[in-house]
Design goal:
With 472 residues, the chain is of the alpha+beta class. The protein folds into 3 domains: 3-59 and 228-261, no CATH class; 70-129 and 144-218, no CATH class; 308-468, Heat Shock Protein 90. It contains 9 helices and 15 strands. The chain has helices at 3-27, 30-47, 147-155, 157-216, 233-307, 309-331, 337-355, 378-391, 432-445; strands at 56-65, 70-75, 78-83, 92-96, 99-104, 113-118, 121-126, 220-228, 335-336, 359-364, 373-374, 398-407, 410-417, 450-455, 461-468. It has a 6-stranded antiparallel β-sheet, covered by helices on one side. Strands 10-12-13-15-14 form a 5-stranded mixed β-sheet, covered by helices on one side. A hairpin with a 2-residue loop joins strand 6 (113-118) and strand 7. Helix 2 packs antiparallel against helix 5 (233-307) and helix 5 runs antiparallel to helix 6 (309-331).
Amino acid sequence: MSLSGTVKDFGAGMAALYRRYAEWLVSITWKRFFLLSVLLLIVAGILSNLPPFSWDIATKTTHVPSSRNVDITVDEHGVRIKPKSKRSQAPEVIIDEHGVQIRRKADVNKPSLDIIIDEHGVQMRPGPEAPTPPTPPSSLPSPKPSAAQSSLADDIRREVVEPLRREIAKVQREAAEEARQDADQAKQDARQAQRDAEEKRHDADDMRREVMDALSQLGTQERVVHIQLGDYLPQVAFLFILLSAGIKIAYAGRVKAEAKAAQAQEVAEAESLQRQVVEARMAAMQAQVEPHFLFNTLASIDHLIEVDPPRASRMQRNLIALLRASMPAMREKATNLGRELEVVRPYLEILKVRMEERLQAQVNVSEGLYSADFPPMMLQSLVENAIKHGLEPKADGGSLTVSAEVAHGKLHVSVADTGVGFARAATAGTGTGLTNIRERLKLIYGDAAELRIAPNAPTGTRVTIVVPYKAT
């Protein structure tokens, strides 16, 4: 097997493993997920101290300060650090409320020195063993001539001017020489002060280095840290829990989307099956309407043949015309109101022949509504029920009116009679016709259509079919 094939198989296996793990995460509740996460962290903590996770995979050496070479005293007066060995040249450090004091011991090369750091700044002064530096000599003031001498010089200027001038010049030369000597002495003092300052700076640098050396002389000790594989086990477990939570959230959304798609497909298939069932049930209902209508009509003709053959002949001719118009409508799934009226009018003519003056029928429908969609054979059933259960049981008969109108975007087709009233006749049927009409309206239009039954003034019943208005 080639390398690419091996990689593909490995990738497919990992993808399958990921899908199974994601499906398992989605199948459990968040409460169970959190409990398993806590259990995983506990197990990771226990395993981190057991082999092979407790085996060392690396070691690390660190240096930590040690206090074996110094004495550190901490009390109410402050902190005092001094070397344990008296022969040690490390300075003594005192830290108290006045500041920091560093005492350097004297040796063969350097005198003792105290460095004080307080609120006044940094001060350096010789220790108790250091010799006191000599005090530099003070400079002598320059002599000045007195006022009496000047007055005397004015008095005797003419007599002794030359001797005094020579004497004054001599005194001035001596004073200038003395001033020059004083200036040279001041320069020497300044150079000496500069040298002293340089020595103090060097002493401060030496003290700083000695302090650093002293701090390093405090000592260090080595500490070996053992690095184990189990040290990272709790962190890996925590990261795995976070990753699992992310997978659970992401895959849950994907599963919900797939479930919605499957549900939508099932709904579509169910609707398709429902449409097939609706068509089958509608065909069965129409087949049930056909014999119901024909048997009633033939029974009426049979009755007229016995009592009045000429009237039976006319009814037979009207029946032929009726069947010629109604048979195509009974076979169709949809038709319009005009074609339904073409079936109703011959039927009413047949019934007028049979009932004579006991039936007055009217059709009040404007021609503009003939093109409106209307289910087949429903209007015929309403007219048949109105006559059979409303007008025929009444001794003097009555009137029947077929009307239609459009209101609020829906077509209202009504059949009103002045008979005995709904469900009051002795010939009341089983209600199969009205039940079929309701079921057919439900299958075709859903909740957009309805069958209304109400009393008719002054007597009788009004039955109305309401369907969405749509002209073809």
